[in-house]
Design brief:
It is a single chain. The chain is an alpha/beta fold. It folds into two domains: 3-74, no CATH class; 79-296, Vaccinia Virus protein VP39 (Rossmann fold, 3-Layer(aba) Sandwich). The protein is built from ten helices and nine strands. It has helices at 47-54, 62-74, 78-98, 117-124, 137-150, 165-169, 172-177, 201-210, 229-236, 251-255, and strands spanning 3-5, 21-23, 103-107, 129-134, 155-159, 185-189, 217-223, 262-263, 290-296. Strands 5-4-3-6-7-9-8 form a seven-stranded mixed sheet. It has a two-stranded antiparallel sheet with strand order 1-2. The longest helix is centred in the N-terminal third of the chain and has 21 residues, at 78-98. The protein is globular and about 45 Å long. The model is unreliable at 1-33 (pLDDT under 50).
Length: 298
């Protein structure tokens, strides 16, 4: 059983002031399978639902949980990195909002959970606009509910694939809230490692970079096997039968995605905490399976 603190000092993620312990739910604790539209295939493990399970969510299926447990055999502390990745998302969004960014293009958002992009952005700028994009129809179902709960005009949710960036940049739903003549934060949080080398992830990032004006930001995190290449590669094998395979990369390979951006101090790392937000117990861990950072387009 994986059990780690929730990363706060005296508060839970909702800010209630109560201490809590975060852990993966036991398989016997998981409720009956969530209902989904008939056209959605739940026989193949999906990356978004595997991630949801690792974060302790219930929007996943037996096939997703089985894949996740297989991955944990090689990387038992992976959920800790995913927890840190969630902190990185929240901190980087607040960082961007404090510096005047008012629109966020979150690609590969996954199933909504605690500490979503719009929640972090609206802490600083309630008027901030967010376009969520994901290729999983189950994510779209949850995203539409998210829009209903969050008020009209500020949030849209689009089903599209990062491998086709032109479809994202021209999507009517995206263009409802994103003005590409004004600075925008493009978010590629824990998504590029599902793009294979032969699919040219660098060209995809360059396409997005070239579509945004000066002053825009790139918020990016990516899985890496630098901590333990053998275990990392073995763990990545757990995604081979999923909707997208995992391509872990090295520090230098990940840093190259920031070509054309000025990377923000403290550079590419996880945890990432440039604004000196309160320290978390998770920040002291030695084994972290990835890196993240923020770049600003000159």
């Amino acid at each position: 059983m994986t059990s780690i603190p929730n990363g706060n000092t005296g508060k839970d993620d909702a800010g209630t002031g109560e201490e809590e312990t975060w852990r993966l739910p036991r398989l016997d604790e998981v409720d009956a399978e969530p209902s989904v539209p008939a056209h959605i295939d739940t026989s193949i493990p999906h990356t978004a639902r595997i991630y949801d399970y690792f974060l302790g969510g219930k929007n996943n299926f037996a096939v997703d949980r089985a894949a996740a447990e297989h991955i944990l055999l090689s990387i038992p502390d992976l959920p800790t990195t995913l927890r840190l990745n969630r902190l990185l998302l929240q901190r980087s969004v607040r960082y961007a909002a404090r510096r005047g960014i008012r629109q966020f293009l979150d690609i590969g958002t996954g199933i909504p959970t605690a500490g979503n992009t719009h929640e972090a952005a609206h802490e600083i700028a309630p008027e901030a606009r967010i376009a969520y994009v994901d290729n999983d129809p189950i994510v779209l179902v949850h995203g539409r509910a998210l829009m209903t709960d969050s008020g009209p005009g500020h949030i849209t949710f689009t089903q599209a694939d990062l491998r086709a960036p032109d479809d994202i940049l021209t999507s009517p739903e995206v263009l409802k809230v994103i003005d590409f003549t004004e600075p925008v934060a493009v978010m590629l949080v824990a998504i590029l490692h599902f793009i294979k080398d032969e699919e040219n992830p660098a060209a995809i990032v360059a396409k997005l970079r070239d579509a945004i004006p000066s002053g825009s930001m790139l918020i990016l995190s990516h899985a890496s096997y630098d901590t333990d290449p053998g275990a990392g590669r073995a763990g990545a094998d757990g995604w081979k039968k999923a909707s997208a395979e995992m391509s872990m990369r090295t520090y230098d390979e990940i840093l190259a995605f920031f070509d054309g951006f000025d990377i923000v101090e403290p550079g590419l790392r996880t945890p990432w905490n440039p604004d000196g937000e309160p320290d978390h117990e998770l920040d002291t861990l030695e084994r972290v399976w990835g890196y993240g950072g923020v770049g600003v387009k000159p």
